[in-house]
Amino acid sequence: MRFLTAGETHGPQLTAIIEGLPSHVELAPEAINVELSRRQKGYGRGLRMQIEQDSVKLVAGVRHGFTTGAPVVLVVENNDWKNWMKVMGADAVAEENEGKRRILRPRPGHADLNGGLKYNQKDLRNILERSSARETTMRVAVGAVAKELLAFFGIRTACQVLRIGEVVAQRSDLPAQELAEITETSPVRVVDKVAEAAMIAAIDAAKNDGDTLGGIVEVIVEGVPVGLGSHVQWDRKLDGRIAQAVVSIQAFKGVEFGIGFEAAERRGSQVHDPILHQADKGFYRASNRAGGFEGGMTTGEPIIVRGVMKPISTLYKPLQSVDIDTKEPFTAQVERSDTCAVPAAAVIMENVIAWEVAAAFMEKFGGDSLEEILANLTNYKTQLERY
Ligand code: EPS
Asked: Which of 92, 338, 341, 345 is the most exposed place for a label (fewest CB within 10 A)?
């Protein structure tokens, strides 16, 4: 399976094309909209989220509620477009046009300067518009489709926020469904109510100071069969693919699995997961410090992944920058933005990982219809039982 996204943050719409989905996957806009709405929530978001109520249109590949096997095309319109039609329109405008809202002072931490130099653009808006985290809307929509496929095979995902700025929340190891239900009621997607209040206060304080906050989020995937991904080639290792996908989310700077970076401090006996066997259960592990992966393949234990998001780079009290026309020092451009998008980032990471797991699932059990995939999975389970 593969997908591409297109669209600018203040353009008319965002689009995704997904190819390789089997036929007979039940797909309704409502299921995707649930994920889009989860992404829009979270304490610390700015005014833009009051303008948008993201809602998907399924414009290809779905008929009477089910996929046909053809490419699936998803569209989300930007409500804000009506305020940007002149600035962002595709039609040619006069050179002296004043309405372009050119961006000349690159924001440190954003794609502005590198993109401007690379694409030889003297209006950094041509970089900002596509590098904006608005693009994650489509990655969530695509992930929501993947979640529908995974749900059919009993695979579930959930996320939680573990840190915002200096405030650390107690990590919960509840099963995915319970974790999802509890975090859904928290404006910062935590289970720990003490941390929740402290996080909200920290976001308020950063906002007052014209500053922004990052954090750490965790995703769990349950019900994954053993053997997704492969040890035989570097680019078939599923943990590697997940790491790439996570770090590709705007503002994400790092990723870890299971006990993650803590493995550096511990002895091997305190890192690896002893192997056990029971006639009714087959092989399983005494612990899951590996976070569900060995040799680039799933172990059958839940996948546990954490990602770190840096603070958003658009600051209301901006850092030093340089005007690209005059080369004079200036403070960076101030654009409308969020103070903290960590709770939204948890939802994005959950959906991005759902896609990678679904893609690996299709590689292993792939068929052109849901029925064919189910037959392949059943056959594999029989093989595991006989092993
Ligand atoms: C973003 C800047 C803000 C955010 C946006 C990401 O948008 P605007 O410039 O229109 O206020 O709200 O996020 C979204 C629109 C979204 O849907 O998440 C940026 O520069 O990355």
From this structure: 92
Instruction: Name the pTM for this structure.
Output: 0.97
Number of the ligand 1 atom closest to the C-alpha atom of 314: 20
The protein residue with its alpha carbon nearest to ligand 1, atom 18, reads: 134
Q: How confident is the model at residue 383 (pLDDT cuts 50, 70, 90)?
A: very high
Query: Is 335 a residue whose pLDDT tops 80?
Result: no
Closest residue CA from atom 19 of ligand 1: 132
pLDDT at 60 (0 to 100):
98
Which stretches of the chain are DSSP H helices?
29-40, 48-51, 85-88, 112-119, 125-131, 136-152, 176-184, 193-208, 238-247, 342-365, 370-386
**Residue to mutate (ligand 1; options 112, 134, 336, 348; most atoms within 8 A of CB):** 134
96 — pLDDT class (breaks 50, 70, 90): low
Range of the domain at 268: 2-386
pLDDT of 101: 85
| CATH code for the domain in which residue 182 is found | 3.60.150.10
Half-sphere exposure of 84 (CA within 13 A, CB side): 18
**How many structural domains comprise the chain?**
1
Q: Quick one: which atom of ligand 1 is closest to the CA of 133?
A: 21
Mutational test site, ligand 1, from 49, 250, 337, max ligand atoms within 8 Å of CB:
337
| Nearest atom of ligand 1 to the alpha carbon of 336 | 11
Q: What is the pLDDT of residue 214?
A: 98
pLDDT tens digits, 188-228: 999 999 999 999 999 999 999 999 999 999 999 999 999 99
Q: Taking the mean position of all CA atoms in its chain, how far away is CA 298? A: 20
Residue 291 CB partners (closer than 8 Å, separation 6+): 256, 257, 258, 259, 260, 303, 304, 305
